[in-house]
Amino acid sequence: MASTEIRGVWLTTTDSTVLNSRDNIVEAMEFLADTGFNVVFPVVWNKAATQYPSQVMQETFGIEISPQCIGRDPLAEVVEAARQVGLKVIPWFEYGFASSYNLNGGMLLAKKPQWTARDIQGNLLKKNGFEWLNALDSHVQEFMSNLILEVVHNYHIDGIQGDDRLPAFPCEGGYDTATQQRYHSTFGKNPPSNPKDTQWLQWRADILTQFWALLYHKIKARNHNLIVAVSPNIHDWAFKEYLQDTPAWLQQQIVDIINPQIYRRDFNSYKSILDTTSQQFKGALPRIAPGILIKLGSYIISPDLLIQTMEYNRSQGINGEVLFFYEGLRADNNRLAKVLKKHLYNKSATFPTISDLTTPTPNTNITWWQKLQKIFET
């Protein structure tokens, strides 16, 4: 009987040609299935465009699909090719609430300046090169929900995935007029100048959590078996820097799989973070499948380090991982893929179902959650 594991890999448009043609996609899916993977996370939203024909983008911004994809539907091609070889498909909304990367807001904010996120100086919110939409704005949230639900409704997929930009927002943001007024109406005072003030952090994080809860239930109303995954940065750095309240998501049961980005280049660092993560989310280990960095620029993980980290996952009761990213498997004549196929992936494993992922995680907000369910059931 096959074991149950999450064996995933991200498919990017950066430093990769997989999504450039149907033939490339078919070859990649066959390669991954042969190596022992069981799920792919193809990017469908980045650089202010989708990798599928989007009516939401067409109606909102006048751009139906990424310029590199005109005349094609890469997501449909991935789904078709993956189905042929038994792979699950969970589209990945890479940019989330980020509007652009070093483009002063790019096309999205040029067309929707009212959606601009602001720092305390009133400037466009920028962090680590990314400029941001105002993730606390209801119109921005509605746009993002519609974008995701469009994929849920139109494609035979197995779930959707957010990441360190969804649901997320830099802690330096929230100083636009509307958000400040909203905070003032709640607490009778202006937001503090310290972006990491405890109450200010939690209040904004709660807005993101509420957004994700509503979206989660809309997805489940469409198909209860769809997986809702998020790949946040590690807790609680992600909370303090990007308002990602992973414990609250688990407590409120609004995420099925967490793929924390434990992107470290030596085993001791990886082990230390995984140990902390395992303790933080002890009651939810079946839902945890860490992101492992196997390639970035010229860096490629060594086969020994990859196997060591994956074996350590399993020794801690964590059955799976998602690798960033596909091209790392193909480097050096498929070196890493050959190692995986020979060792940890030498026997097949089934991707977990929703029932496999269910854990007795305590939910102190059960009354609130039941009310939320009834709203959508009526």
Characterize the structure shown:
The protein has 378 residues and is an alpha/beta fold. The chain has a single domain (3-377), classed as TIM Barrel (Alpha-Beta Barrel). 43% of the residues lie in helices and 13% in strands. It is built from 14 helices and 17 strands. The chain has helices at residues 22-35, 55-61, 74-85, 106-111, 138-154, 177-187, 198-222, 237-242, 246-251, 267-280, 303-315, 327-342, 354-357, 366-377; strands at residues 3-4, 6-11, 39-42, 45-46, 49-50, 88-89, 98-101, 126-127, 130-132, 159-162, 227-230, 257-258, 291-293, 295-296, 299-300, 320-324, 349-350. The strands form six sheets. The chain has a five-stranded parallel sheet with strand order 6-3-2-16-13, with helices on one face. A three-stranded antiparallel sheet has the order 7-9-8. Strand 2, helix 1 and strand 3 (39-42) form a beta-alpha-beta unit. The protein is globular, with a radius of gyration of 20 Å. The protein starts with a strand and ends with a helix. 46% of the residues are buried. Mean pLDDT is 94; it is low at 359-378.
